[in-house]
Amino acid sequence: MTAVRQRALRRTKEGTRLPSLLKLLIGTQFAFNVGFFAVLPFLAEHLGDAVGMAGWLVGFVLGLRTFSQQGLFVVGGALADRHGVRPVVLAGCALRVAGFAWLGYAEQTWTVVAAVLLTGFAAALFSPAVESEAARQAVLHEEAGGGSRTRVLALFTVAGQAGAFVGPLLGAQLLEADFRTVCLAGAGVFVLVLAGHARLLPRHLPGRTRVRVRGGTGPLLRNRRFLALCCAYGAYLLAYNQLYLALPAEVERASGSQAPLAWLFALSSLLVVTAQLPVTRWAGERIGLRRSMAAGLVLIAAGFAVVAAALPAGRTGTAGLVPAAGFVVLLTLGQMLVAPAARAWVPDLAEEGRLGLYTGALSSVSGLIVLLGSAGTGALLDTGLPPAVPWLVLAAVPATAVVLLPRHG
Fold first, then answer.
1. Tell me, what's the pLDDT at 16?
2. d(C-alpha 307, C-alpha 148), whole Å
3. Which parts pass through the membrane (predicted)?
4. How many CA atoms lie within 13 A of 65 on its CB side?
5. What is the residue-averaged pLDDT of the chain?
């Protein structure tokens, strides 16, 4: 049998040996994003038109939602470590059902704010619990000879991206009725997720043992290698966030309209769904976690540099959108290398029994970096400097982050 056929057979066996718990967690990520993205893309318009909020208040409410979710990931992760994954996931699903149902009927500012905070906190409970358990089970799967942990976490990423693609399509169809119908449909998705986990998620998870740990977050804050990973991952997220800040400005300059954005976002989602697994398999066979993250960050920096190099020519129309498309492709390829590798690296850096805390802290610390960095990016884009300068500065962010990566995988 040739080496190529042996590798193909091995990959087929790896796919069939994926444990049922990992399949449940991967399917959960898909369902979560279907329910979430069925509602979120239409929230801002609902707050402005139906509820009558001023523009600044709409932005404030959306910021609160992000803070109540990303900022509190560390809380959800710590609770999963202390009380187990099952109760935290079930509580998060129940709160998301209540939050979406409340949001559908909320008509006053304070009720909208409360519902939005509730939906954000719900995600802060179940997302770090599911992500940390997926990472734990991926490590166990790897140690049992079932295949690379990064491959499993890449499947997790693909499932989430597929859910993010399907969710808005579902929400757009339901929006023809009204926003309340969209919210109730999103709540219905989480009712199904809640019922599925209540029935299928084991009370005692394989490979999970209760470990008494002391010191609170002190050991985490003294873990320089983990904090270095958080900073590098935060730089990646800040760069990725430019899909929603710098890219729209460039598309507006080149085409005079925001319409091409939808096609560029679809291009990004399509790349992840179709290429994530081959890219992860290639990286797993040839480079380690650190080199995978470093290569991804370099690709992202190159994406910003492509736009910076093209801007002095001032091209518009279809030709003017080509650099933006190149940026999206390189950014997405970088994402496919960075995100699974970062998640796969956390178990190697976490204390025993604290994987949930560390998984949540990765999102919370990097989310804070994005919050501060986005404010600076917005100011940079409004300074009146030559258009290429902000893109060169943004290119330096992921390039510098390569130096921040921990030295050993």
1. 46
2. 35
3. 21-44, 50-67, 88-106, 112-131, 152-173, 179-202, 223-241, 261-280, 292-314, 320-343, 355-376, 388-405
4. 20
5. 83
Amino acid identity for residue 254 in this structure: A
CA distances (Å), origin 239, targets 267, 273, 321, 392: 17, 20, 19, 12
Q: Which bin fits 350, alpha (ψ -120 to 50), beta or left (φ > 0)?
A: beta
Which one is predicted more confidently, 212 or 353? 353
Closest CA to 272 of 332, 313, 195: 332
CB burial of residue 247 (10 Å; 0-12, 13-18, 19+): buried
Tokens of 146: 């079932």
**Spatial CA neighbour of 380 closest among 287, 189, 245:** 245
**0.85 exceeded by pTM:** no
What is the C-alpha to C-alpha distance for residues 69 and 62, in angstroms, rounded to an integer?
11
Q: What is the CB-side half-sphere exposure of residue 228 using CA atoms within 13 A?
A: 16
Residue 233: the pLDDT is: 92
Domains and CATH numbers, the chain: 19-201 (1.20.1250.20), 218-409 (1.20.1250.20)
